[in-house]
Structure prediction request, 716 residues.
Amino acid sequence: MIRQESTAERHFRQDIREWLAQNIPAELRHLTFRPEPATIMPWYRKLSERGLIAPHWPVSEGGMGASAVEQVILMEELAAAGAPDIPSQGLNHIGPLLIKSGTPAQKAQHLPAILKGDAIWCQGYSEPNSGSDLASLQTRGRVEGKEIIITGHKIWTTWGQHANWMFALVRTGGQRRDGITFVLIDMSTPGISRKPIRTIAGDEEFAEVFLDDVRVPLENVVGSIGQGWKVATSLLDEERLQIGTPLQVNRAFVRLRRLVAAMPAPAQAAWQARLESARVSTETVTAAFLDICERLEAGCARANESSYLKILATNAVHDILDAVQEAAGAWGAIEGPLMDGATRLDVNEMYLQARRLSIYGGSNEIQRTILATRILNMNKGHA
Amino acid sequence: MPVWSEQDTMIADSAAAFFRDVGEVSRIRSEASNVSSKRFFQRAAEQGWIGMLVSQAHGGAGLGLRDALVLMRAAGRHLPPEPLAAAIALAQAMQHVPELSDVLARAVVGEQITLPAFCDANDPDLETPLWTRPVAGLNLADALVVINELNELIFAPEGSFTGDTRRSLDRGFVGIAEVNDSKRLRAGRDLCDSLIDTWLMLHAAELVGLGHEALSRTVNYLEARTQFGVPLSSFQALQHSAANVYVQLAAADALVFEAARAFDTADQSFATLASFRCAAAAADKAAKEAIQMHGAIGFTDECEIGLFLKRAVAISTSCRDLARHRVPSHQIN
Prediction:
């Protein structure tokens, strides 16, 4: 972050830095792959106990209520310390959504469990024939008495194989956006089976989830029957903000810096200009993130404006990871980490994993169409 | 775009009104001359623009960098070829040089135009004559403050130099001065650094405004122009090109105003160069894509859209010398 920090912000950074230095286990540092729950959840709980788990949640709901600047400081320090990725569907998606639209009972049941790391969530949106065209989804929900009985097939479900709960969109009637209902599904309910999918990066980051007459109590509906599209999209700008945070670009930049630092002195000097370019990209994403946070808070952000942040952030990550590969020279081709142990450094794991950034959460092509039609108002009245 | 304060809106609105009055882009289509540009400068000074970063004690408006960025962002939409950014940044610097207090007083009220320039000399004894590097708007300059290779400031008063000026791409003038009588000023390196940083930041904001105007004219054109029986704006290829331009402009906008918050910290030089680089790239892309998306008409002299690329080039090239004099002092590791 280039803006001047206040004294309080400087202390906040110092505290976090010291705490992270002492508390991240060595074997979890500088990983790209999110470790399995048994390995990662103790770290999640540690963050939770220190009160750092939900910076963007309000204090009244157990979050940090952190300012945008504090959020950036936290992300920069997590990246610099090589802190591992934690499961985020609960923290970034369903948590804020329940805070906005959940019943008191839903909030009481789920929010503390998310904060404490007692529940892992997954998102049941995409289907084999409904990717970018989400409103075409076909998973059926039939209301019978006090239950919805759900049958269908969800896919690209991040951590679907590990999750205890899924928030999902199902069709309870109607066409397209009408007749979609938002439900919370306990993944231990009979009728659910799941199959992990291996990614090009070699990990099992996502899964397929099959639902066969899965009975969900009606009190697990968020909003009302048939109003699910509205519920799901009510926080779209905030969600895009979470996808476009400077966390990933900082993690990529830290990799490049560590790789250059390991070079002989003459090569290091030759890489200064590239490091500076990478820093410009990183700070541009940070500036854009802070700008949108401030605009949202001041109430002057236009709906869908945050689509640009996602494109900007993913382009920046991709560019820096290209430089990482180039810096690695011939080692750039190896599978697995370049160095292991305390100095762990991977080149290709993050490079491959980052391909998904421009695909998930609404592909970058979809975001461009949104910007063109809703921000630049192109083709108004002709579509 | 940052959250606009009331003051920001006031400054942007008054700039828009000023340019409506002087003739917006069409002004530079008609043969701009020394006389009309001098008149433009005089009126800008009357608006308080030249002295906007000068304290009230020195006869200025006592405004801050952010205010000047808002002004230059608004001005950038109208492609003024006159060296506004240079004059505003130099006026701010001159208030710290007691020897120039009279020159500053005349600059602030628009009686005289003093511009910064660069030269390649690094001789401890001032050589005569001293040749400057190309100066944008030299035709307007009554006096010069020349920055040498050692980042020292040298004053060339009225009548001490002659200029060889030529038309520049943006319908302004650019030229080299032969200075025959000059004087080294007592000013520290910090003053020179801050002059260059402010100058670059003002141009960065100007480029952002230029890019936004090029994009908005392009979007309007795509709405109006029909081919294959539909408006061009309905084609996804063009929508995505426009969206890509928007992404770069919005990012540059955010970075420029973020960088203003890094002034007077250790990150000032990095923030300045980052902003300028990002804004120049965004404006360049916006201007080139604007011509492309206009098609053949965009390639004609008659269509104003080509002027955006020309002004973007004129600013970027004139700033190469600035950036060269301001290598960041830090190393990333």
